[in-house]
Write a structure and sequence with these properties.
Structural class: alpha+beta
Number of strands: 10
Shape: globular
Number of helices: 20
Radius of gyration: 27 Å
Length: about 650
Amino acid sequence: MIAEFGHYALVLALGLALVQAIVPLWGARTSDATLMNVAGSTALAQFIFAAASFAALTAAYVGSDFSVVNVFENSHSAMPLLYKFTSVWGNHEGSMLLWVLILALFGALVALFGSNLPATLKANALAVQAWIASAFYLFILITSNPFARIAQAPAEGRDLNPILQDIGLAVHPPLLYLGYVGFSISFSFAIAALIDGRIDAAWARWVRPWTLVAWMFLTLGIAMGSYWAYYELGWGGWWFWDPVENASLMPWIAGTALLHSAVVMEKRNALKVWTILLAILAFSLSLLGTFLVRSGVLTSVHTFASDPSRGVFILAILVLFIGGGLALYAWRAPLLKQGGIFAPISREGALVFNNLFLTSACATVFIGTLYPLALEALTGDKISVGAPFFNLTFGPLFVPLLIALPFGPLLAWKRGDLFGAAQRLMWAAALGVVALAATFAIQRGGPVLAPFGVGLAVYVMIGAIIDPIERIGLFRQPFAVAFARARGLPRSAWGTAVAHFAAGMLLFGVIAESQWNSERIVSLKPGESVSVRGYDLTLDNMIQRPGPNYRELVARFSVRRDGAVVDVLEPAKRTFPQRQMSTTEAALMTVGASQLYLSLGDIGSDGAIAVRLYHKPLVLLIWFGCIVMVLGGALSLSDRRLRVGAPKPARHKPSLQPAE
């Protein structure tokens, strides 16, 4: 009965979503406060029923109820409890249920914490959110029912995909969905504002915290997925320009541009048209990622489903919300009024420059990802667009962006002093040049562009902290005075500095890992050794070991440096009988921010086992940089100015202003 309860709860959630989608919208149109208030209560009730449905599916997995098709297809009674729990979203149907649960959660949060919103804007936004939820509830119930039963329940399940039997599944999809679905709030607010015809600095103040939360979760989700692929797939890579990786990168870039654009709109009441468009595009690109994963139009390690009927349904959702959103934008945007005017050399100008290169980079990834699919659909020809294309197009767009990054906070609003900002960045530029020269001297040949990348990374990191250092008077005032000023500095200023510093960290890690990575591929028998970057690894022995639902071959390696044993690594190959699949479990040894990476291949006819060994210098800076970036976002989010209601605009006489 648990499965039937979950199915019934999902149907009730759909009914509540339809009420939430229609009644408040009509209330906003007729200025009926009672009807508009329906939005909050139905949003909360909808979340309760969505959570009940998700809990029912979770109970079926934990209890190994193989009479449920979804559980039979993706679970096994011998799996550890953690993987039984994560199996709930380790498949298409369960992951879509998680998607709508998070969608309902964000609607409930707006209902709970949106008391300072204008009633009309809140009602319209929750109604739009409900229309999105209704579409996905219908999608699940019609094409992807997770509660379907088997007439004759089998004794055992087929097991979860072995690649997904990892702690990464517990972290990566929920974080990614919180980011993807979080942008639905920005989208809903944008559509609601277009319907209402009111878009101003107060609107940006309301939207920015929700966008920041979504951006933070998406950043963590992408970083976790990258690290999961790095250690699980056994290839030693952290980014493969896989189409579905690109599908998560595109909304992240659009969300980053939206955050910066919203700052200009909040401070100067400018860039209204552009900010609204970015809010629509960020969620549209999230929906596009959903289509790519679940439509069967591409083959990827990330894809969940290949049923064309599901793809057609999701394509219809894309057309409805993306097409409808852009059509409404095209109709209403010309009616918007321009806000504050600013000079090209100003903080607003720097943020516009930032947006220009971010959206260009996003367009590059979009074209490189979808062009092969469009070409195959139209002509039948198959082409591959891989890392060389993206490295040659995406990278050069980010270089000028990173050069300009430290300038923005140092420029004044409305009209800035570019020469003065450049003077204050002289220390950052000088240290960047020193790092460049030192790298040239140390590497003695090698990649020519790597030292320039290191110099740019140092320049970005030092440049990021120049603004707070100058604002608190460090090195110019007594320490007590500087410390007091530091405490009084807005947290959003610290958050900006930390996030920009993290961008330099990430770049440093990317350059070091990609340019100075060492790789050895050899076949070893017990007692034989392989060396890389001063480390000697000796294969001591190989043993077979049973697991709960797999068998594994474990190879034990002693790691020596200068003749002394510094660690023991045990990479493994696991075989899952139920799925007839194997996985590679890499072994990692961390030294500072660098890692030794060891994975196993197949055993040859002579008894030797293939071994892939990497030394990855400073590779952890890539993920440390992402974490620090999120911490910067958290600092900004904790700023009181983002937690209080937006101030009401001062009354003034209306004036004619040109359209933006």
